[in-house]
Design a protein that fits this description.
The structure holds 2 protein chains of 2 kinds. Chain A is 72% helix and 6% strand. By secondary structure, chain A is mainly alpha-helical. Chain B is an alpha+beta fold. Chain B folds into 2 domains: 100 residues; 251 residues, no CATH class. The chains are: A mainly alpha, B alpha+beta.
Chain lengths: 299, 460
């Protein structure tokens, strides 16, 4: 084919422009560390990166949820552990008084201690966490256990669970039921039983004190059950968090592989494109020199 | 045969070789003039009746064109231009959905769902409630903004098409005028090569604007059909106009001199106009529809779930978003006016019984992020969004590949055309030597004849 001068100049120009464009792209990748700078660089990877990013975001959300809930669940557990100790002491008091070796004065002293222990237990049952009362069900803003005029404790919380999503599709109860731990809903009304013990100690009703021994024991195991439940929740949250922690690492690696570029690869490609550009420029220079020398030779 | 005849031969030769030098000079001078077609000095033997005279005569100037190669270059130019204009338009669309580059709205979608999760963790916290409203508001604003940018681009592409149509009209009338001038020049006995160069250059420019078909009528004038309708015929030119149809779609009309017009919208397949039309009516329409469907599906799913729960006041049946749709959903979506300034209305609880800290509904809202509520309950929200981004990326990638392909074909077609019509300096420099030596030889011939004549006169 006959090559016109314009064709030659255009070819030279095209080659240099193409080499420049490729060099520019390699430089962008090396500088930004991103293989996919725009969806068109790799549409499939760009779309998948969005989905992986979503999983990363969700994982982070679950970990946040776990982080902010764990404290309250733990607090519920340790509070119930202390409540359990109180019940143990009440049980011991009832057992001691039930042996029949104490006089009425000594029993009155014990009654005072029982009253104090009851106040302590009410305080535990009304424990507040970072998001309101721990044992009121969903009524976190209202003090769940209130003491009436005659000293009777009533429960004004509800028996509903507070739940949270701690993994994809994993919704678990994160509240610890105060009604199960302390009221008749869990078996026995612990506070009424304490009141019974208190009255029996004051009046020296030996038979009732004897009954109270087993009532205190049931109350203790009722609280123990609630405490164990809270402990299981802490363990579940920890397991879920560990799973998410691992998933986060895997997802980050996946994301990296999808849109980022290995620095070594990026720099070696940049060097390659650089030498290609230099070659294109030097070939162009050569061609232009040839054109000039033809003109000079025939002058 | 005599000495005087020899003088005549020398005179003819000097004239002819001088003409050759002149034509070579023109070629060298115009080597880089756009549209310039290489000239050739046409020489022939001079006849004098039936006698063999042996002189040389200048027959004219040859213009090295190949109509077929020209037509190929026009077509290739049309397709290259349409590929470029579509690619430019798509680059703008892509920039609106480039999440790795910091645009796009995956972030605001994730933030919205993240805020539902935070709300579920602490439903009675006023800050968490206010955050949910704020993220919902910014998600809606982001959709409106993207939709608005797509709309502005649609308008921009129409304006570009109108400017291009005006250029087509101008080019057509200039080509028609050149048609007239060339025929006048030819009638007057001139060859009109320069005018033809100009005319072919304009036809090439026209091909870049719209797909054309060029042929020559009986009198040698060019007839040009643009997108199937006659645009230039002899000395007459029609105009091109771009408007919108009732539905807002781009409409391309060839305006005849008499006032009638022909709709060539569907036939406009190449050139800048073809690319603009494809980008506007195919790519942008598809992207806008997908965006609307996305906005509609995600907002409807959230609304339905939100309305199922109750606010802190124990009342439910409130939507989080207000929108119309599916068509126009992205442009119309706003935070429900009744919710504005009322974070306590955010429905975290599923019923009044679990107030204030029940989070069943907030969890359900958060879980929509991983539920197939989109595209006829087949995709999750982020999957649906990633489909849109993938689609746009695919369009842009294939259009960029098309640009490279069309460019290569155009470059090749130009090379073929220049192979027939372009100036090669090597060739011209050789021709220059050739005519120079021939001129020198002709001078020598003249001197020889002159010396012979002088000798003869002396002898007499």
């Amino acid at each position: 084919m006959r090559i016109a001068d314009n064709t030659r100049f255009r070819n030279i120009q095209n080659q240099v422009v193409r080499a420049q464009a490729e060099h520019n792209e390699a430089a962008r990748q090396a500088a930004s560390g991103m293989r996919v700078g725009a969806p068109s660089d790799d549409p499939v990877a760009a779309a998948q990166a969005l989905r992986v990013n979503h999983s990363m975001q969700r994982t982070a959300t679950f970990r946040n949820t776990i982080g902010s809930l764990r404290g309250d669940v733990e607090l519920a557990e340790s509070t119930l552990a202390q409540a359990e100790d109180v019940m143990q002491r009440l049980h011991d008091i009832a057992l001691g008084a039930g042996s029949g070796t104490l006089d009425s004065k000594e029993q009155a002293v014990l009654a005072t201690e029982v009253a104090a222990l009851k106040d302590q237990l009410v305080a535990f049952a009304n424990q507040k966490g970072s998001m309101g009362y721990l044992f009121g069900g969903t009524k976190t803003a209202t003090q769940p256990f209130t003491t009436g005029v005659g000293g009777a404790v009533s429960y004004v919380g509800d028996n509903l669970d507070r739940t949270a999503e701690v993994g994809q599709g994993v919704v678990m109860t994160v509240s610890t039921s105060g009604s199960n731990a302390f009221t008749v809903a869990g078996g026995r009304d612990v506070f009424a039983d304490i009141d019974t013990l208190y009255s029996a100690l004051q009046s020296g009703n030996q038979a009732t004190i004897m009954t109270s021994v087993s009532q205190m024991e049931s109350g203790r195991s009722q609280i123990l059950a609630a405490r164990a439940d809270a402990g299981i929740k802490v363990a579940r949250l920890d397991t879920a968090d560990a799973t998410h922690e691992q998933a986060a690492v895997t997802l980050a690696t996946q994301q990296h592989g999808l849109i980022e570029i290995d620095p070594a690869q990026a720099y070696s490609r940049l060097a390659q494109k650089q030498s290609q550009l230099e070659a294109a420029v030097s070939v162009s220079k050569n061609l232009l020199d040839t054109l000039a020398s033809t003109t000079a030779g025939l002058r | 045969m005599g000495i005087t005849n020899l003088l005549g031969l020398a005179r003819d030769a000097l004239t002819a070789q001088g003409f050759g030098l002149d034509v070579t000079g023109q070629n060298i001078a115009n080597a880089s003039t756009p549209g310039y077609v290489k000239r050739t000095a046409l020489l022939e033997t001079r006849t004098l009746g039936t006698v063999t005279y042996g002189g040389v005569a200048v027959a004219g100037i040859g213009r090295s064109v190949d109509r077929f190669l020209d037509a190929r270059a026009y077509d290739a130019g049309s397709f290259s231009a349409s590929a470029h204009s579509r690619d430019n338009a798509l680059a703008q669309v892509e920039s609106l959905f480039n999440d790795t580059g910091g645009s796009g709205f995956a972030d605001s979608l994730e933030s919205l769902f993240g805020s539902f999760s935070s709300l579920a963790t602490n439903p009675s916290d006023p800050t968490a409630r206010a955050a949910t409203l704020a993220y919902a508001d910014s998600f809606a604003a982001r959709l409106r903004q993207t939709s608005g940018q797509l709309l502005a681009q649609r308008q921009d592409l129409l304006t570009q098409a109108q400017a291009t149509a005006a250029q087509v009209t101008d080019l057509a009338s200039r080509i028609a005028k050149l048609n007239a001038s060339i025929s006048e020049a030819e009638v007057a006995g001139a060859d009109g090569s320069d005018l033809k160069d100009q005319r072919d250059q304009l036809v090439g420019e026209l091909a870049g604007k719209i797909n054309i078909h060029v042929f020559t009528d009986g009198s040698g004038k060019l007839v040009i059909a643009a997108a199937g309708a006659t645009l230039v015929e002899g000395n007459n030119a029609a105009g091109l106009s771009v408007g919108t149809s009732g539905s807002g779609a781009m409409q391309i009309l060839v305006q005849r001199a008499g006032g009638s017009s022909i709709d060539v919208t569907a036939q406009t397949t190449a050139g800048t106009l073809g690319g603009l039309r494809e980008a506007r009516e195919t790519d942008l329409v598809a992207v806008s529809q997908k965006l609307d469907q996305f906005a509609y599906d995600v907002a409807t799913a959230i609304n339905t779930q939100h309305a199922a729960g109750v606010g802190q006041d124990g009342l439910g049946s409130r939507n989080l978003f207000t929108l119309t749709g599916p068509a126009g959903a992205a442009a119309s979506i706003t935070l429900n006016a009744a919710m504005v300034g009322h974070p306590e209305y955010v429905a975290a609880a599923s019923g009044a019984a679990e107030l204030p800290s029940g989070s069943t509904n907030a969890i359900a809202l958060a879980r929509l992020a991983d539920t197939n509520v989109m595209n006829g309950n087949t995709r999750t929200p982020i999957e649906s969004y990633s489909d849109i981004v993938g689609d746009i990326g695919q369009r842009k990638m294939s259009s960029a590949q098309n640009v490279n392909l069309r460019e290569a074909i155009y470059s090749q077609a130009q090379a073929m055309r220049e192979s027939a019509s372009g100036v090669s300096m090597d060739e011209e420099l050789i021709a220059l030597s050739k005519f120079q030596r021939a001129y020198e030889a002709a001078s020598k011939l003249f001197r020889t004849a002159d010396e012979l004549l002088a000798t003869l006169i002396r002898e007499i």
